[in-house]
Amino acid sequence: MKNKTMKAAVLEQFKKDLVIKELPIPTPKRGEVLIKVRASGLCGTDLHIQDGRLPTIKLPYVPGHETAGEVCALGEDVNCFEIGDRVIVAIDILCNTCRFCTTGRGNLCVNLTRLGFERDGGHQEYMIAPATNLLKFNDNVPFEKAAIIPDAVACMYHAIKNQAQVRATDRICILGVGGLGFQGIQIAKHFGAEIFCTSRNDEKLEIAKKYGADHIINTSKQNLYEVIKDITSGEMCDAVFDNIGINSSIQTGLDICRPGGKVIMVGYSEDTFQAEFQGTAMKEKEIIGIRGSNRRDLVETIRLVEKGIIDPYIYKTYALDDINLALEDLKNGKSLGRTVLKM
């Protein structure tokens, strides 16, 4: 490798802009791979990290947990990859020994370490990852679309397939359609569901319609409960995906959920929520959490993307040097979907 240094976006202080720095290109250790990063996704969680809301983050460090690139160097004992392989980086580094890892629920690993959180992530030109965290993908998938599969796509896949167990007879509603919701529409459509989507932004709702939403509702102009009640003849929704994550949004989901239905907690903007105890319990409604995805989900979503069944929606791409502009656009609501750094 000719170059000895690389550009990296480093978070040095909470509540401050990231700093573009020249750092040495790292060398992979035993079991590790050096990846030439081609695309790194931006997520609302990046804003939470920047604001200091995640206690496991130690500074200085390089964020970025949605990464795709090419293998460019192999550590000792790595024999399952070749130089030039196109790879997606799974976020979670698992212990593979705890009760959750050994029962197929590695996303709940009790000894979890995450790339882009507790370890440096993909907002840099090169990154190190364990070989066990890499998954190959076909060259018909652009790097920027591949990059968001580990989080924006696989997370919604886990929410829809596993947590909500959506079926072809179901009606679902995605509250606050956006970076995750546009992927969720396609996934729910794949499972045959009837899909409602909400937003206060008409442009987002038009994108939702393009990707297969059956009903779009602008909640700044329409009464969500009344619209769903009217369309479903009072049967309401089988599952609601709360991608908003504010104090009142769980109750909004419960209100439009049928008896025995589910509200899946996908997004989080605030630390607490309020919900009515009696109406939830007596009608056997469920509030269900979600954390990331497991490896099987990730493999399945890659295959669905490769087959063209899911087309990851990217609103805009930025250069690494423009990361602070990209984060500011995300914070101010200027990003209508997932945004990605291209390198």
Detailed description of the structure:
- With 343 residues, the protein is of the alpha/beta class.
- The protein has 2 domains: 5-148 and 312-342, Medium-chain alcohol dehydrogenases, catalytic domain (Quinone Oxidoreductase, Chain A, domain 1, Alpha-Beta Complex); 153-289, 3-Layer(aba) Sandwich (Rossmann fold).
- It has helices spanning 44-50, 143-147, 149-163, 181-190, 202-210, 224-231, 249-255, 277-282, 295-306, 323-331; strands at residues 5-10, 19-24, 32-42, 67-74, 86-89, 92-93, 113-114, 126-130, 134-136, 171-175, 194-199, 215-218, 237-242, 257-265, 286-289, 314-319, 338-342.
- Strand 1 and strand 2 (19-24) form a beta hairpin.
- Helix 3 crosses helix 4.
- It is globular.
Element layout with pairings:
Blueprint: E1 5-10, E2 19-24, E3 32-42, H1 44-50, E4 67-74, E5 86-89, E6 92-93, E7 113-114, E8 126-130, E9 134-136, H2 143-147, H3 149-163, E10 171-175, H4 181-190, E11 194-199, H5 202-210, E12 215-218, H6 224-231, E13 237-242, H7 249-255, E14 257-265, H8 277-282, E15 286-289, H9 295-306, E16 314-319, H10 323-331, E17 338-342
Helix pairs in contact: 3-4, 3-9
Q: What's the gist of this structure?
A:
This protein is an alpha/beta fold.
Total count of domains: 2
| Biggest sheet statistics | 7 strands, mixed
| Proportion of residues in β-strands | 25-35%
The radius of gyration is: 20 Å
Report how far apart the termini are: 17 Å
SS-derived structural category: alpha/beta
Put simply, the count of helices is 10
Number-wise, the strands total 17
Q: Extract low-pLDDT stretches.
A: none
Just name the CATH architecture of the largest domain: Alpha-Beta Complex
- The pLDDT mean sits at 96
**Can you tell me the CATH superfamily of the largest domain?**
Medium-chain alcohol dehydrogenases, catalytic domain
H and E string: EEEHEEEEEEHHEHEHEHEHEHEHEHE
**Helical fraction:** 25-40%
Briefly note the CATH topology name of the largest domain: Quinone Oxidoreductase, Chain A, domain 1
Shape annotation: globular
